[in-house]
Amino acid sequence: MMIKRCFAIVIAAVMMAALLSGCAADNSNTETEQTHDELLYLEAEGQTYDIGTDLSFEPFIISEDGELSGIDIELMQAIADEMGFSVEWHPLGFALAFSAMDHEMVDAVMAGASITEERERKYDFSNGYYECSIAVAVSPDSGYESLEDLRGSTVAVKIGTTGAAYAESIAREYGFEVAYYDNSDQLYDALANTDAAACFEDYPVIRYQILHEGLDMTIIAESDESFTYSYGLAVRDHDQAVLISAFNEGLRRIQENGTYDEIVSSYLR
């Protein structure tokens, strides 16, 4: 009887030791995985990434004489310099940039792309680098003073943008039709040529056009919190984890050292 009891005690002790050992091994693996994930950005050093962007989205993407500048361009370059990787830009237009990424022709898209639930079902995003709402702009002499005044008219939006989504979400309520264009310049032309009564575009973009480019427009409405989003770097779902990690770490660093504020304030004073 005593022998059986001692044997049972020994077996219990062995099982407990194995259980504790297994737990320790699991913790070790978890810590290793966490460390690997946290340091994933190190693998970006020396790499070159193809980034799709818009043709024009001032002040985030500015194209002059074949040269790109703007908030998005300078932020990405500052992050790349900080993290030791290189960037090749491909100004394709907003919708075409995402299409190119879908077909693995570019690695990522940085084009003032808002992080939305719908997009997150298809793409992975970095941490947000700029937050904005949607503005509704009209010609100053149009007589339009509110969304209610747009009933029965046509408004201009850019294909695949949150501005388009916002216009679509309120089109029935305010009784207007939505016309789609490929880039921001076409929105402004539609307004100037009276092909559209209003255009829907990101607030800082419209504000920049009015204050810095002398565009003859007036903002009559702004979206509420339900259509206020952060811009992010987009990649294919479950793809380019190293680039996302490097972007997030680089963004954190340039925010801490003041480079981020210097870049943004140089365009949005």
Question: What would you say about this model in short?
Answer:
By secondary structure, this protein is an alpha/beta fold.
Please provide a written account of the structure.
It is built from nine helices and 14 strands. Residues 1-34 have low confidence and may be disordered. It has 269 residues and is α/β, with parallel strands linked by helices. The chain has helices at 2-38, 71-83, 94-102, 117-120, 162-174, 184-192, 203-212, 241-256, 259-267; strands at residues 48-53, 62-64, 67-69, 86-91, 108-109, 123-125, 130-132, 134-138, 154-158, 177-181, 198-202, 218-222, 229-231, 234-236. The longest helix has 37 residues, at 2-38. Strand 2 and strand 3 form a beta hairpin. Helices cover 45% and strands 21% of the residues. Helix 2 packs antiparallel against helix 9 (259-267). It has a five-stranded mixed sheet, sandwiched between helices. A three-stranded parallel sheet has the order 4-1-5.
Question: Which helices and strands appear, and what pairs or packs with what?
Answer:
Blueprint: H1 2-38, E1 48-53, E2 62-64, E3 67-69, H2 71-83, E4 86-91, H3 94-102, E5 108-109, H4 117-120, E6 123-125, E7 130-132, E8 134-138, E9 154-158, H5 162-174, E10 177-181, H6 184-192, E11 198-202, H7 203-212, E12 218-222, E13 229-231, E14 234-236, H8 241-256, H9 259-267
Parallel strand pairs: 1-4, 1-5, 9-10, 9-11
Antiparallel strand pairs: 2-3, 6-14, 7-13, 8-11, 8-12
Helix pairs in contact: 2-8, 2-9
